[in-house]
């Protein structure tokens, strides 16, 4: 973008529609202009921040007209936190936009014939729907412009979420509408306790400080896991924090901590200490119990996970005599969920700890027709693996946001399973993979599922069948 365009203000830009990643679109001088934090129907002045020959990006600096479809956001942190970017848009319209996002991605990227995309399955809960939240301690609380301009001194220790695009600034969250139960009380009371006892909050830039991260997980069965991540191995103060949580919140069924002095917050390679309760919590679905450890992945909207898995199972239409390959099986939730309707289910996953969870989940539910293997999908799913097992009648694949490796797609084309059920959290990469699978497969059904109200994210399930 030329220097003349940067910081230029386009006046009275009409916002037309929502595009990918939740940004909205307007047009100026024949170019597309992407703008965040607006709604279709708004008329705004936009300051250009970046762009290329065919498009520009900018931020709204003044509103001339507000869209009739706007609603009042319910969270006081909206617009700063960045976690729920669509609170200002009516939920019915959110669902329409998400469905259209699937249609647009498939038309633009997949370029294969698709049937009518079914109406999106909305979430019954549009607040308090998450079962897992990560909060960050910081000694560098985000200050509002009003606070900065006041010249006053403010408390800088915070516990909350990262400000978008600012790794070292944390918004101090008073009430989060994403998780119910004791989540808000645990966060607020632990923060107050730490301030009162002058415990150090983490300095993200210099990577020092005791309190680093707080993870709260909950289940529909009423169990709660709390994990405290410490940035220093402090044998005097760590027990002080953990005793406070244990005594103040006896409802916590799994209380753990980990000392992490690494440069990032990931702890999959670190040992966790169970301070009180059990080292896991359990979720339930159709009478099946799924054990969730501190390192386990589980869909973060439990109710909608059930709806998502039912769609996948319905698309598979198992009759009881099929061999199913469940790729990217994670902790085996889908594999165990469909096992009672299949002859055998073979799950493959990269993370070894997740495969151990998958095996355990089969065991505790008395399921004996599953097999699980850990390894890189593109390496493990080879000719030798296929020769050692029955060929699949149905393949269920639920890859991460990046989609399937091209080698995995090529193996699917060689396997020629009669049905492929593709579950995706990213319709763009799903569409890319469908373009490759279109060599031998046709799209029979497309079902979007909303797992994350108030955000632009959408899950999508596609049924593929071999071409005649």
From TrEMBL:
InterPro entries: MeTrfase_TrmA_AS, MeTrfase_TrmA_CS, NA-bd_OB-fold, SAM-dependent_MTases_sf, TRAM_dom, U5_MeTrfase_fam. S-adenosyl-L-methionine binds at residues 299, 328, 349, 398. Gene3D superfamilies: 2.40.50.1070, Nucleic acid-binding proteins, Vaccinia Virus protein VP39. One of its GO terms (molecular function) is methyltransferase activity. One of its GO terms (biological process) is methylation. Keywords: Methyltransferase, S-adenosyl-L-methionine, Transferase. The active site is at residue 425. Residues 3-62 form the TRAM domain. Its EC number is 2.1.1.190. It is an enzyme of class 2 (transferase). Belongs to the class I-like SAM-binding methyltransferase superfamily. RNA M5U methyltransferase family. This is 23S rRNA (Uracil(1939)-C(5))-methyltransferase RlmD. It comes from Algoriphagus oliviformis. The gene is rlmD.
């Amino acid at each position: 973008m030329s220097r003349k365009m940067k910081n230029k203000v386009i006046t009275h830009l009409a916002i037309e529609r929502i595009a990918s990643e939740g940004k909205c679109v307007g047009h100026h001088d024949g170019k597309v202009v992407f703008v965040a934090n607006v709604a279709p129907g708004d008329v705004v002045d936009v300051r250009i921040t970046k762009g290329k020959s065919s498009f520009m990006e900018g931020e709204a600096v003044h509103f001339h007209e507000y869209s009739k479809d706007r609603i009042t956001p319910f969270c006081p942190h909206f617009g700063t936190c960045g976690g729920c970017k669509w609170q200002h848009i009516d939920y019915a319209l959110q669902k329409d936009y998400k469905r259209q996002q699937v249609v647009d991605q498939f038309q633009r990227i997949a370029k294969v014939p698709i049937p009518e995309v079914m109406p999106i399955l909305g979430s019954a809960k549009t607040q308090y729907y998450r079962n897992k939240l990560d909060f960050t301690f910081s000694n560098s609380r985000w200050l509002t412009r009003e606070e900065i301009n006041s010249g006053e001194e403010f408390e800088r220790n915070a516990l909350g979420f990262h400000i978008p695009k600012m790794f070292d600034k944390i918004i101090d969250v008073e009430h989060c509408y994403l998780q119910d139960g004791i989540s808000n009380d645990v966060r607020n009371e632990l923060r107050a306790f730490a301030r009162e006892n002058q415990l150090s909050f983490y300095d993200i830039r210099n990577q020092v400080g005791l309190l680093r991260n707080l993870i709260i997980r909950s289940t529909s069965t009423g169990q709660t896991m709390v994990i405290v991540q410490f940035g220093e191995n402090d044998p005097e103060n760590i027990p002080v924090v953990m005793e406070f949580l244990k005594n103040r919140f006896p409802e916590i069924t799994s209380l753990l901590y980990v000392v992490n002095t690494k440069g990032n917050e990931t702890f999959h390679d670190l040992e966790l200490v169970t301070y009180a309760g059990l080292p896991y919590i359990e979720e339930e679905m159709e009478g099946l119990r799924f054990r969730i450890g501190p390192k386990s992945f589980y869909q973060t909207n439990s109710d909608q996970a059930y709806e998502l898995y039912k769609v996948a199972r319905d698309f598979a239409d198992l009759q009881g005599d099929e061999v199913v390959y469940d790729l990217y099986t994670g902790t085996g939730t889908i594999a165990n969920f469909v096992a009672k309707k299949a002859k055998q289910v073979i799950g493959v996953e990269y993370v070894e700890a997740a495969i151990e969870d998958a095996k355990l989940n089969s065991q505790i539910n008395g399921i004996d027709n599953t097999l699980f293997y850990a390894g890189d999908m593109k390496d493990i799913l080879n000719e030798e693996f296929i020769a050692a097992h029955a060929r699949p009648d149905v393949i269920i694949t639920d890859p991460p946001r990046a989609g399937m490796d091209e080698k995995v797609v090529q193996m699917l084309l060689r396997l020629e399973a009669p049905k492929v059920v593709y579950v995706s959290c990213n319709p763009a990469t799903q569409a890319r993979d469908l373009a490759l699978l279109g060599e031998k497969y046709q799209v029979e059904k497309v079902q979007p599922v909303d797992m994350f109200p108030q955000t632009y994210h959408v899950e999508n399930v596609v049924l593929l069948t071999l071409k005649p």
